[in-house]
Specification:
Layout lengths: L7 H19 L19 E8 L2 E8 L6 H14 L15 E8 L3 E2 L16 E7 L2 E5 L1 H7 L3 H11 L12 E12 L6 E4 L2
Antiparallel strand pairs: 1-2, 1-3, 3-7, 4-7, 5-6, 5-7, 7-8
Helix pairs in contact: 1-2
Length: about 200
């Protein structure tokens, strides 16, 4: 089994941890750990937490690289997605019962092999997310974005460059492109059943 593969119960716990962390902050309480988490939660790994309110994006923040334990990354990403995403106002307590929580556990980013003309052959829609880096700019789109938006590989590359604050074709002109894989666990309805999404 891959070091980065989560069992279903582990993914469910990750979503519960993210929701519990946000609820604690909304109640002006210190976030509490879930006791006896599986060992996987102590491994360093990348993660993103995505929040939707009435089906619309309400926050999405995470860490593409494994720079802290999965447990800590989930908690920090949950707080950031709820209260620090610059695209949105902070979540308010009165709205949180309408929010669905999603956790995407990531593999380590893998740089695509040049030349850029081969990039599209190295990207599988529904399997890979993309990250683009150029100097101080960096942007990442999760695997589910390409599926939800109907992107092909070229559009996915261009949109990830735009997310990085670059021109759409920057992937042809020296920007580094990485692919990542993700396991996605989300609530079907706010605070409801948690399932693994298969793209």
């Amino acid at each position: 089994m891959s070091k980065y593969h989560l069992l279903t119960n582990e993914g469910i716990l990750a979503v519960k941890l993210a929701r519990q962390t946000i609820e604690s902050m909304l109640n002006d309480e210190k976030p509490q750990r879930i006791p006896n988490l599986p060992l996987n939660f102590q491994e360093d790994r990348g993660v993103f937490v995505t929040l939707t309110l009435d089906g619309e994006l309400r926050g999405c923040i995470g860490y593409p690289y494994p720079i802290m334990s999965f447990e800590k990354a989930v908690m920090k990403a949950a707080i950031s997605a709820a209260f620090e995403d610059p695209r949105f106002f902070p979540i308010e307590k009165k709205d949180f019962n309408r929010v669905c929580v999603e956790v995407t556990a990531l593999t380590i980013p893998e740089e695509l092999e040049p030349p850029f003309t081969s990039y599209t052959n190295q990207i599988q829609i529904g399997k890979h997310g993309l990250m683009v880096e150029y100097q101080e700019n960096r942007g990442l789109l999760l695997p589910q974005v390409a599926v939800e938006q109907g992107f092909d590989s070229i559009e996915f590359l261009c949109q990830t460059c735009i997310k990085a604050g670059l021109t759409p074709m920057a992937w042809k002109y020296g920007a580094k492109v990485y692919r990542i894989e993700g396991q996605i666990f989300h609530e079907i309805e706010p605070n409801g059943e948690i399932v693994e999404e298969k793209l």
